[in-house]
Write a structure and sequence with these properties.
Blueprint: E1 4-10, E2 15-18, E3 24-37, E4 43-53, H1 54-63, E5 69-82, E6 88-101, H2 105-110
Parallel strand pairs: 4-6
Antiparallel strand pairs: 1-3, 1-5, 2-3, 3-4, 5-6
C-alpha cells in the first residue's frame, strides 16, 4: 500500500503548467513542522514536493497562495534523472489524489502578520504548530466557519 496524508502550508504560489497533450498540472511544496524538537530545542520543518493534475491543479492555482493551509492525500512517487553534468539525481514527490483547502481566505488574512514560516511575528502559540490538543482556538479551527459541529458517520469510508 502506498498512501500519504499530509497537512502543511504552501511554500510558494503554485503555477499552472500543461503537458504537450494539453493536460494541466501544478507542482508545489508544503512545509510541515515536525511534532518533536531537536537537541537544540528547535523544531525542524520538512518540505514535501507535491504534483497535482487536471481540474484539481487548476483549482489549486486559482485559489491557493503562499502560506495556505492544505491537506494532501496521494501516493509517494520516486524517480531519477541525469543532470547536465551527467550526475544521477533522485526525486521523491507526492502525487496528489486530493488537495483539501483547510482555511478560508478570511482566516488566511488574519494570519498575514507572520514574519516568516514557522516564526510568528507575535508571541503565543504558532498557527504552524500541529499538535494534538483538547483546546481548540477558533482562529485556527478550519471548521469554525461552519457554525455547527461536524460529525462523520463511521460508515462513510465503506
Amino acid at each position: 500500500m502506498n498512501r500519504a496524508m499530509l497537512i502543511g502550508r504552501l511554500t510558494a504560489k503554485p503555477e499552472l503548467r500543461y503537458t504537450s497533450s494539453n493536460l494541466p498540472f501544478a507542482r508545489f511544496s508544503i512545509a510541515i513542522n515536525r511534532t518533536f524538537a531537536g537537541r537544540d530545542g528547535q523544531r525542524e520543518t520538512d518540505f514535501i514536493n507535491i504534483v497535482v493534475w487536471r481540474k484539481q491543479a487548476e483549482n489549486v492555482c486559482n485559489f491557493l497562495d503562499k502560506g495556505s493551509l492544505v491537506g494532501v492525500e496521494g501516493r509517494i512517487q520516486t524517480g531519477s534523472y541525469d543532470d547536465k553534468d551527467g550526475n544521477k539525481r533522485y526525486t521523491v514527490e507526492v502525487v496528489a489524489d486530493s488537495v483539501q483547502f483547510l482555511e478560508s481566505k478570511a482566516q488566511r488574512s488574519r494570519e498575514d502578520g507572520n514574519s516568516s514560516y514557522g516564526a510568528p511575528a507575535s508571541s503565543g502559540p504558532s498557527p504552524y504548530d500541529y499538535q494534538n490538543t483538547n483546546q481548540v482556538n477558533v482562529d485556527e479551527d478550519p471548521f469554525a466557519d461552519f457554525g455547527d459541529s461536524v460529525s462523520i458517520d463511521d460508515n462513510f469510508l465503506d
